[in-house]
Amino acid sequence: xxxxxxxxxxxxxxxxxxxxxxxxxxxxxxxxxxxxxxxxxxxxxxxxxxxxxxxxxxxxxxxxxxxxxxxxxxxxxxxxxxxxxxxxxxxxxxxxxxxxxxxxxxxxxxxxxxxxxxxxxxxxxxxxxxxxxxxxxxxxxxxxxxxxxxxxxxxxxxxxxxxxxxxxxxxxxxxxxxxxxxxxxxxxxxxxxxxxxxxxxxxxxxxxxxxxxxxxxxxxxxxxxxxxxxxxxxxxxxxxxxxxxxxxxxxxxxxxxxxxxxxxxxxxxxxxxxxxxxxxxxxxxxxxxxxxxxxxxxxxxxxxxxxxxxxxxxxxxxxxxxxxxxxxxxxxxxxxxxxxxxxxxxxxxxxxxxxxxxxxxxx
Length: 363
What we know:
The protein is mainly α and 363 residues long. It has helices spanning 27-47, 55-75, 90-95, 104-122, 129-144, 172-202, 206-230, 235-242, 261-276, 281-287, 289-316, 333-348; strands spanning 11-14, 23-24, 97-100, 152-153. The strands form two sheets. The protein has a two-stranded parallel sheet. Strands 2-4 form a two-stranded parallel sheet. The two termini are 39 Å apart.
């Protein structure tokens, strides 16, 4: 089985699922991180400027692309020999992903490169401004996690390694792969933020819990936007260029997001949240309204994510079945997603400020 885009070098994600750093990068990388974060912050403000979009947004985007590419170059380390790494699931083989034990320097290197490629592709994407802003805001949060204020400074690195394929093609299949790499990073970061919130609640550290819930909401909104970014193509284009690459004979088995380890990590964290922190919104709001609203924002973002999944599936797939369905009498992919959405809404209802009263018969 070959990756969908063989020209994009293999991306190595951390085997421990941790995309933040525990040590501070060396001074040149820290400076490049700060410059990239500042440029992204300016872009975020321009995207949400009440005066509207236009040339200032385009200039801010070009600057942010340049600064994130500078970061990718400054942070680059010698690439790992990925030929000895086995893909965890077929999805990883398809998207050109491997996992391995990595140090913080490698974490910064790979994460910076993923963000640089995603942002560069955003220049040609026809993405809603609010989705662009959500993606950029999540990038800022990810980059801040690569330079922890309380981390131990790292030693000065050797000369940066050559960056291979910093710029990649701008066709739809390349966009599909590049933005999924960022989607995976955001899922891992969101899973960690939810877990951090749960740990803080168990330790009665409500300030950390509030911050973690807010971070998780930003990351979920970000991976929703990345999903929409990946689907920036027409239905005929998706049907001709992308969909055929995800089922036999192109791949041994039809691929599904349900087996994607990074998203499974996030879903596992959300399930743990719903069974360990079960106080209704109204009850939490009486004693700590800030905490109640922070948790509520996460549930809202997660429901919004699957609702947007339905929207993009309707646009690209229409009434067709999922590629993993073989029974011609089975429901459409949209119908299955709606059931998943309603099931999630039922679980979250009493935990949310404005929970959806939907019920599924027999559930």
